[in-house]
Amino acid sequence: MGKILIIEDEDLIREELEILLSNEGYRVESAAEFHHVTDLVKSFCPDLILLDINLPDRDGYRLCADIRSFTDTPIMFITGRDTSMDELYALTVGGDDYVSKPYNVPILLARIRLLLKRGKAGEQTERLEYKGIRLNLVSGTLSFKGQETELTKTELKIMYYLFSHTGEIVSRMDLVEFLWDNQIHIDDNTLSVNIMRIREKLSGLGAENLIQTKRGMGYKI
């Protein structure tokens, strides 16, 4: 169902959350000490982080900012601090949700499910994969068998459209309309040039046969 990391220094609350979430079917890990929490985040790779604000060594705000420097994993603050300024600051430094103690268990579980669902949807949106070839929409790259190549903005849009229509024949007109929003002055040859450059980059990755030309109809992957 997902992996959840608990970063909470109050033993009773931490143990309560561990039991509650384990009983719901989640795989749960807790921070036993707070000097190397970011290392635990990197090694455990959670799908969701539950984070307190009042922690030893450094507060949850600073820790949230540190975590945000290397991952977009959803972070839910669970804390006894309940002012609007606390909540605003928590969201400003990168938190995704804010729950005050004492929390209502059914509502907490519902919000956890929502964040986990949102996180998975975000991952699916950021990366598309077909036949082992990955298209990363955030970094604008194509990767295959450990190799990676960068795409221009237009090339990225072409690949996104093709990846979104795998197994279908995409007409040149559909691509032109998607790329340039019906700008009729665009030379049709511009699309051909971009397709050629994408094929060269795919060839460099060892995936030269990904894009097929269907004569008189368009392209297909």
TrEMBL record:
Pfam families: Response_reg (PF00072), Trans_reg_C (PF00486). CDD domains: trans_reg_C. Residues 125-221 form the OmpR/PhoB-type domain. The modification 4-aspartylphosphate is found at residue 52. Keywords: DNA-binding, Phosphoprotein, Transcription, Transcription regulation. The keyword Transcription regulation applies. SMART domains: REC (SM00448), Trans_reg_C (SM00862). The keyword DNA-binding applies. Residues 125-221 bind DNA. Residues 3-116 form the Response regulatory domain. Gene3D superfamilies: 3.40.50.2300, 6.10.250.690, Winged helix-like DNA-binding domain superfamily/Winged helix DNA-binding domain. May play the central regulatory role in sporulation. It may be an element of the effector pathway responsible for the activation of sporulation genes in response to nutritional stress. Spo0A may act in concert with spo0H (a sigma factor) to control the expression of some genes that are critical to the sporulation process. PANTHER family: REGULATOR OF RPOS, STAGE 0 SPORULATION PROTEIN A HOMOLOG. This is Stage 0 sporulation protein A homolog.
